[in-house]
Amino acid sequence: ASIEKILNYLSDIRETLNLQENYEFEIEKLNKQYEQAIADYSHHALQLSENRKKVARQLETTVQQQLAELGMPRMRFQ
After folding, report:
1. Over 80: is that where the pLDDT of 11 sits?
2. Contact 64/76 with Cβ under 8 angstroms?
3. Which DSSP category does 31 fall into?
4. CA end-to-end span of the chain, whole Å?
């Protein structure tokens, strides 16, 4: 009976070790996914900011042209 207990104990230890190794692998994988998500977020945030600035300049130009057409060339829209 003691050999059986030792073998069961060995099996339990191996299972625990495998779980720990899997957890470490999963944590590493999740950290990589997190870092990629942060990089993607930063990239898209920068693109959004650039697009907003571009559209704001276009809007400013359009409004300035319309103000000039309305006889208010000195009015400024920013």
Report:
1. yes
2. yes
3. H
4. 87
